[in-house]
Every structure is written in structure tokens, then in C-alpha cells.
Amino acid sequence: MLRIGKVAAAAAVSADTLRYYEREGLLAPEGKSQAGYRLYSQDSIRRVHFIKQAQRCGFTLSEIRALLDLTRRDSACCSDVRSLAIEKKLQLEAKIDALRTMSRALDEVVAMCVDDDQPLESCPILSALENGIARQQ
Question: Parallel, antiparallel, or unpaired for β 31-32 and 38-40?
Fold first, then answer.
């Protein structure tokens, strides 16, 4: 059994992160030592690595909890996980599209500003934002 500091070091996270994962229902210690320290199994390190990798793929903690819940359901299969992954990918692609649209809109308003020495009340960027001149694409 490992204490929280050992698990944190092995998983390259802080002890506070592990405590947060506990509060979020993503990780649970196996028990406590006589001195009251949280004790974790070696599987806890793998679980934290899973959580961090899922976060790198864009999954929220709530979505990660759903993935972990699937692993405990006898009726779950790979297609259930695949469906969640496809749904996340579609969400990410929608966000990317929205960010590209925002970037184009910013390009447009930045291009309007050719004189950095203009007084603030003549700033074309502020005017464009106020008057909705930036196109919605």
C-alpha cells in the first residue's frame, strides 16, 4: 500500500490533485493507516494516469467518471466507450470551428486598426465591437 505522496509522485500530480479526484469520485483510497494516512494500491497510479490521459483527449472529469463507470458495468462494451469518444470528438471539432470563426473575426477588426496613435474614442476595433461590424461567419 502506498501513501498519498508516493502515488502523487509516481503519477506526476500533486497530493491536492489526488484529494480533488477523491472528492469528485474518480479515485478512492483503499483505506487508512493507523496514523490516519490515506493508503492507495498500485492500481491508483494507473487510474490517475488514465484520468490525465483522458483529460489530454479533452474529456471533462464528469465524462471521465462516466468512462470509469462503464468499466464497472457488466453490460458495457467497447462500442459504449467508442460512442463517448466520438461524441467528444464532435464536440471538440465544433469548438475548433467556433474558435476559427472567432479568430477570423479578430483578424478582421485588427486589420481595421492601422493607426496605433488614434485616441480611444476613435478606435476602430472598439467601434466595430460596439456596432457589430465584425462579420459572423
Answer: antiparallel
The closest alpha carbon to 24, from 80, 87, 68, 58, belongs to 68
From first to last of the 137 residues of the chain, give the pLDDT tens digit: 999 999 999 999 999 999 999 999 999 999 998 999 989 999 999 999 999 999 999 999 999 999 999 988 989 999 999 999 999 999 999 999 999 999 999 999 899 888 778 888 888 889 888 887 655 54
Note the pTM of the prediction, 2 decimals: 0.78
- Is residue 77 included in any domain, yes or no? no
Residue 111: inside a domain: yes
Residues 53 and 104 in one domain: no
> Is residue 73 in a domain?
no
